[in-house]
Amino acid sequence: MKDVDQNPPGPLRPRSLGELFWAFSWLALQGFGGVLAVVQRELVDKRRWLTNEEFVEEWAVAQVLPGANVVNLSLMLGDRYFGWRGGLVALAGLLTFPLVIVMVLAVLFAGLSDQPQMQGAMRGMGAVAAGMIAAAGLKLLPSLKKNVLPAQILSGVIALTFVAIALLRIPLIWVLLGLGGLAALWAYRLLGQGQRDTASDKAAGKDQP
Q: How far apart are the C-alpha atoms of 26 and 96, rounded to whole Å?
């Protein structure tokens, strides 16, 4: 009996601009607060346009760039597959239907935002959104095993980031420039060292008779 391949198929890609538009439209309609969890599930688990490792890398870049993370990611992913047209189509899919819905809701509930019942409902939704973001973060942790930084360093960066943002209330931009910059430089140095070691090993192999 032949062995069954247990590895899932590799990343796919959107087949058309239309598929890209509707994928991001559906993603946007699910993104109530905890958008990170929705984006990861749609792009990695369901559509397999990205691996977990690729998603972590792309999200990190989107996080550093100015603007909303998911907007940056939509532009990057659309441009990857269809150039500038793909970036604009993905962005249009992400924004069109939520914009219409928000405008309609703003008209319908303009006089309800100050009521205690409505404010309590929004606080409850905030707790759900926080739980979704935490769950997505925990789900993505295994992808860090392939990171060039040692596990101890990664754990330290995660802990320091949590303390800086959640406890010390340091603005995100300073956390990104400080901890993020140090981690990026360290990873760059390790990658350069690994390339030099590989080149040295190849050179030593050629010198041997």
A: 11
